[in-house]
Amino acid sequence: TEKCIIIGASHAAAQLCVSLRQGGWDGSITVIGDEDDLPYHRPPLSKAFLSGDKTMSDILIRPAEIYEEANIDLKLGVRVGAIDREKKSVLTDDGDIYPYDKLVLATGARVRNLPVPGEDIKGVYYLRDTKDVLAIKSQVAPGRRAVIIGGGYIGLETGASLKKQGMEVTILEAMPRILQRVTAPELSRFYKRVHQEEGVNILEGVVASAISKSNGRLNVSTSCQQNFDADMVIIGIGVIPNMELAEMSGLTVGNGVEVNAFCQTSDLDIYAAGDVTWHFNPIYERHVRLESVPNATEQAKIVAAHINGQPKPYNSLPWFWSDQFDLKLQIAGLSDGYDDLIIRGDIKNSREFAAFYFNGAKLLAVDAVNSPREFMLGRMILGKGKTLDKKAIADESADLKTAVI
Ligand code: FAD
Fold first, then answer.
1. Rounded to an integer, what distance in angstroms lies between the CA atom of residue 239 and that of residue 154?
2. How far apart are CA 182 and CA 177, in angstroms?
């Protein structure tokens, strides 16, 4: 029988193995992942799992029986160290060799390390997997002090989850504003206001330069000469794609493993899906690397369809979400390159609004806070390549549907 090997056992892999079977693949499926847990939902790690509202069994993507019933062989706690493209096999760090007919890289991304002294001392954490969060959770207690380095979504979500548990939280952002890479200044100001209203201390334009420990207390030194005492430090400054296996075996890479519209790499029997891919988005007409569950799931389905001989090119609108305090942010599309922002609702005083990003008359993206209707409409319009009338959006008394052009 034919053999499909999947490297990585997370969102992309968990979707792919099931979609392969559903689409009729009757060869073997082996998933090799270096984490010990069954594939689990990663987004709750900084949200409900960190705040204690969800347990490990709540966050599993599928129960163990589903993999058994579908005859999927999960090799967990096993790392793949090399791919031999000539022999069509992979080599694990345990020394085992697995031959493949089809190989899929679902290796995702790993945290970017903060290049300062002390980033590796006890009490300093990164946040990517369950082990990280369990270690953090063991140190959470009301009144204790956390310093979070990085004011992106993960830093802000982590800050909110720790604050909810009674901790004193300070977030240090090196750039002039939080969320600078991903949102408009108006949104950064909004998130800063809400965090401050909830008692989180946010400092922008502050670069952490060293972390040290004395008498059991951590200390973060910064560019602004101010030092911050802490019981724990959490670093969230972004991720880098796990593309070394691809690079070592000579596959084409960019800011990730380069794939075509069917998620094939430059070796057509090797596919890639999820955070690790550098792929062309037809809606935005450029290459992107997305860090989102919907993309990992979507690309996994594209791979399964192609392997099963029912090819369907990738043509998805990127979308994301973030939960902080009582804010449910939903994002449709990519806002980079916008030249105009139209806000529907009261961003200055309320916690409910939608921000529409335009380039000229073209709608690029929507950031909707506690506004699911605006998100749904934006997603639908963007997916169809249509746009919205700016004046009609800004007029809150008008039904949003009248804004559709
Ligand atoms: P990953 O989840 O990164 O999994 C890759 C797996 O492969 C890992 O287990 C890795 O250890 C393993 N691996 C790598 N190399 C090897 C090897 N050589 N051998 C064996 N195994 C290997 N996305 C959203 O859409 N919404 C959110 O709200 C959101 N919140 C997030 C919060 C946190 C705290 C984090 C960390 C991420 C969040 N994300 C969110 C991003 C989302 O989790 C990722 O987009 C998603 O996990 C990508 O799935 P993936 O399968 O591509 O890769």
1. 11
2. 11
Q: Which of 304, 309, 330 is nearest to 319 (CA)?
A: 330
41 and 65 in contact (C-beta within 8 Å)? no
pTM above threshold 0.95: yes
Segments of 273-393 assigned E as strands: 277-281, 286-288, 319-324, 327-333, 340-345, 353-359, 362-369
The domains found in the chain, sorted by start residue, are 3-110+240-307 (3.50.50.60), 124-235 (3.50.50.60), 326-403 (3.30.390.30)
Q: Which residue has the tokens 């990164």?
A: 126
Nearest ligand 1 atom, CA 46: 34
Please tell me the predicted confidence (pLDDT) of residue 398.
87
Query: What is the whole-number distance in angstroms between the Cα of residue 4 and the centre of ligand 1?
Result: 21
Sign of CA dihedral 150, 151, 155, 159: positive
Sheet holding 217-222, edge to edge: 208-214, 217-222, 227-230
**Ligand 1: distance of its center to the CA of 45 in Å?**
11
Q: Is 275 close to ligand 1, i.e. is its CB under 6 Å away? A: yes
Q: What is the pLDDT of residues 23-80, one digit of tens each?
A: 999 999 999 999 999 999 999 999 999 999 999 999 999 999 999 999 999 999 999 9
Token pair for 97: 């060799």
How many A from CA of 11 to the centre of ligand 1? Answer: 7
Cβ of 75 less than 6 Å from ligand 1: no
**How many Å apart are CA 183 and CA 335, to the nearest integer?**
7
The pair phi, psi for residue 274, each rounded to 5°, is: 95, -155
> Looking at this protein, which amino acid is placed at residue 280?
F
